[in-house]
Each structure stands twice: as C-alpha cells, then as structure tokens.
Design a protein that fits this description.
This protein is mainly alpha-helical and 188 residues long. Helices cover 59% and strands 0% of the residues. Helix 1 packs across helix 4. The radius of gyration is 18 Å and the shape is globular. InterPro entries: YdjM-like. GO terms for molecular function: hydrolase activity. Keywords: Hydrolase, Membrane, Transmembrane, Transmembrane helix.
Amino acid sequence: MNKDGHVLNGALLAIGLGVILSIDPTAGPIIGGESGGITFDAVSTLAGEVARSIAVLSLPVILGALFPDVDTAFGRHRKTLHNLPVLGIFLAFPYLFGNLQFVWIGVGTHYLLDVVGSKRGIALWYPFSSTEYGFPTGVATSSNWATRVTVVVTAMELFVLFLVHNYLVALNTPLPDAANLIGTLVGI
C-alpha cells in the first residue's frame, strides 16, 4: 500500500480500537444502565470515554503504521523495516517505554496490509532471507482498488483485534502481564 493507505489504516484502527477498548462486554447494557433506559448522561459518558481512547491511541497507532516505510529513505524498501525481527523490537517497546504499548499494532497491521493488500508483499525474514511473501489478493499501490482493499483489510484487522480483546486477553493489559497470561493458557 502507499502512504495514504497506511495513514487511513492507522486512523481507522485508532478509531476502531478506541471503541473496542472503551466498551466492556462483561459490564451489561452499554448505555442502558440498571433500568435499561438510555440517558443523555450515559451516552455522553460513553462518548467521552471513546473520544479519550481514540485520542490516546491515534498517535502511537498511526506512527506505528507509518514507521516501516521509513526504509524508503535508506536500505531496501519492504525489506529493511518490513520484517519480523523489527516487529519483535516493537513488541519489546512496552517493556522499555510503557507509553508506546500500541505502536506494535500499527507496525503489525502495516505488515499485514502490505502482505494481503499489495501485489509485492514483504520480506518477513529479512535479513536472513530476501524472499518476499504476499497473498494473491493484493492490488497495485496505484490501483483504483487500493483504498477499498485498505478498508476491507482494516475491518478484518479490527474484527480479529475485537476477538482477541474480548476472548483471549484485553489489548490494554500491560504486555508483561499479557505474556504471562498467554504463557499460562498454553502451559508454558
């Protein structure tokens, strides 16, 4: 995808994640409260929580979604910063910089968009291998379909993130705690 596609992807992800993280599916009615009636206060409280969540997520997710394309200025594009070792570094960020917990989501979804949404794919194992991996579903970055593909892939990403958040581990769980929880679930 091109830069505009990755910005769109990051912005839509920030909005979608803002909603996902603001709504607790175990809390009962979202805005109906105990009585089941919808009140202005309940709606405005929820809207405020969603807006705050989107504001907090926008910068790290959009920057993460754009970061891999920095390799257009140096190195080899879709190789130097488009690989799993670099993603591993971003997964470690929350251990070092707690405020960057969601950068990895932007980076990871950038990779997914390039693998699924573009014809070329990315070199997942670079520098160990220069082989580029992609799906046959991709379109050229200059295609009239590029924006549509970006929106469809982003919707699929948000659906998976929703499932992970609600059924595996909450996405706003600190990464060390999430790693321990997942380790316990798989018996490590």
